[in-house]
Amino acid sequence: MHTDVPQQSTGPRRVPAPTASAPPAVVVAGRWTTRRWLTLGVASFLGVLLVLGAAGGWVLARSATLTDHVLTADTAFVAAVRLESALTDQETGIRGYGLAGQSEFLDPYHSGVTDQHTYTARLRSAMGDRADVMRDLDALEQRAGVWQRRVADPIAAAPPGAPVALAADRADEGKREFDAVRAAAGRLQQTIQHARDGARAQLHSATTERDALFAAIGAVILGLTTTVFVGLRRGVTRPLEQLSGDVRFVADGIFDHPVTPTGPADVRQVAAGVESMRVRLVRELARTDANRLQLDEQATELRRSNAELEQFAYVASHDLQEPLRKVASFCQLLQRRYADQLDERAGQYIGFAVDGANRMQTLINDLLAFSRVGRLNAETTEVDLEQIFARTTDALSVVIEESGAEVEHDPLPTVMGDATQLGMLLQNLLSNAVKFRSPERPLRIRLTAHADDDGLWHFAVSDNGIGIGPEFAEQVFVIFQRLHTRETYPGNGIGLALCKKIVEFHGGTIAVDPAHTPGTRIAFTLPGPAPVAAAAATQENQR
Fold it and tell me: Is 306 exposed, middle or buried (0-12, 13-18, 19+ CB in 10 A)?
């Protein structure tokens, strides 16, 4: 059966005349690709950063070392001052003990001796690598040792309780020796101070160098960043923008706008490929326009052919059925009026003629219904299958009651389709289930329905009748294909073919489930609203 073919329509576009041949893709030899440029740029950038990082690390390490030297010198200077203070405490304690002879005056002397050893050890630990400091420290210890042996220790060894006569005897010597100790302590402090000044000068110089180097690193990084940005802009971004602009022109329908290859080799190759595709597209569009004109002509021819088929359908539904009705009517009239004059064989012949005319009339009606699926009265709306099922079972109530069938169904949804055709679908499936029932058991028919993730509703009409063999699962949907004789089961063999056409017109599928026993299970799908909306509609129907 012919169907209308809609005319194709396209938006305005500029299609140049096709060229004789497509230009070959431009292959750029000897030019660097984007990846190679980026690899070189990134490698150079990382190399410079590595060198700058190594220089910065060296400067920071040197600054840290010089800072440690300054801190060490400061610590040593403080120790030298405290060492002199400890020696002074010793001299004060000895002088007081010598004058008063009281033992408590020896406490500063003993604590000073302890502090002397502590700060001497601290100086040796901190400044052991400085020979000049060690020389002055040794000299100080020597002078302090002489003073202690000649003056301090003999006075401290005298018994307490009275002034020590030895202190008065050696007062001048003790003063000379301790002045020598003070002079040695002063020289030690001057040497350490000189070391402090040198360390601080080196630290200041290193700090200046560090600041200059970091400023240079910042300038180099800024320069490299600017160079990379400009390089990417000129070598990659700008060619890609030009390519994107050319492609946008073509995408907007300006097919005569050429795509110009620029930039690195790979970008140029992409542009050349797009240009080649544009040329081929121009050719295809030219052929498409020619095909569209041909399709328009075919659509016009199909509309004319469908008009003729509509006229044939009208003739078939009226003019062809009228002679059949006359044949059947007059044969029945002949049988009634002359029954007493006709023998049994003549009556049988008349019955054959009437049955043939009726079957021909039924066949014409079935063919008309089959041909009209998807062509006439095909308005797609929301169809409540609960109402369709109720009307269908009501129309089949007599045969259902006579067969003693028990008909059940799940809550049915609302689907998108044509109400008349979906009614024909359910009527054919239910009437087939009744017709092909098994005499060995009570007939049970059930219509199930459930929504799936594919956006379709899945239905199945199941019965416990005589069933369909797996080898006939496809054959039963072919028009005029029968599995039984007309004497056993009447019909024209169009019912399931009509069901298949209705389901496929609605965008679904239909098939026999060979695993269902006993009986037959015919499953089909139909489009419907989203499952949530369908579930709400089903609950509303149940209420």
Answer: middle
Structure tokens at 20: 């004789």
Find out whether 238 and 81 touch, Cβ atoms under 8 Å: no
CA distance 441 to 405: 10
Q: Which residue has the higher pLDDT, 164 or 356?
A: 164
Nearest to 364 by CA among 494, 232, 475, 466: 494
Mean pLDDT of the chain: 78
Residue 411, token pair as written in the block = 């809550």
Give the model's pLDDT for residue 187.
92
The SS3 of residue 439 is: coil
Indicate if the pLDDT at residue 491 is higher than 70.
Answer: no
Q: Decide if pLDDT at 217 tops 90.
A: no
What sign results for the dihedral spanned by CA atoms 196, 197, 203, 204?
A: positive
Cβ atoms of residues 139 and 80 within 8 Å: no
Confidence check: pLDDT of 227 > 90: no
Q: Which band of pLDDT confidence, cut at 50, 70 and 90, is reported for residue 20?
A: very low
**Cα–Cα distance measured from residue 524 to residue 163, given in angstroms and rounded to the nearest whole number:** 131
- Please tell me the least confidently modeled range out of 60-69, 202-211, 357-366, 511-520: 357-366
Paired sense of beta strands 521-527 and 456-463, if any: antiparallel
Residue 347: both structure tokens together = 């009556």
| Alpha carbon distance 142, 317 (integer Å) | 143
pLDDT band at 316 (very low <50, low <70, confident <90, very high): low
Under 8 Å between Cβ of 462 and 448: yes
Q: Which two tokens stand for residue 413?
A: 């949804």
Of the CA atoms within 13 Å of residue 472, those in its CB half-sphere come to: 11
Question: What CA–CA distances, in Å, run from 72 to 85, 188, 192, 242, 473?
Answer: 20, 15, 10, 65, 101
Distance CA 472, CA 483 (A): 8
CA angle 67–70–75, rounded 5-degree value: 125
Q: Does the reported pTM lie above 0.70?
A: no
Contact 195, 130 (CB under 8 A): yes
Region of residue 166 (left: phi > 0; alpha: psi -120 to 50; beta: else): alpha
Of 409, 447, 443, 449, nearest in space to 519 by CA: 443
**Reduced to 3 states, what is the DSSP secondary structure of residue 267?**
helix
Taking 90 as the threshold, does the pLDDT of residue 190 lie above it? Answer: yes
For residue 172, CA distances in Å to 86, 97, 106, 139, 178 come to 21, 16, 20, 21, 10
- Quick one: what percent of the chain has pLDDT higher than 70? 78
Q: DSSP for 285-336, please give it.
A: HHHHHHHHHHHHHHHHHHHHHHHHHHHHHHHHHTTTHHHHHHHHHHHHHHHH
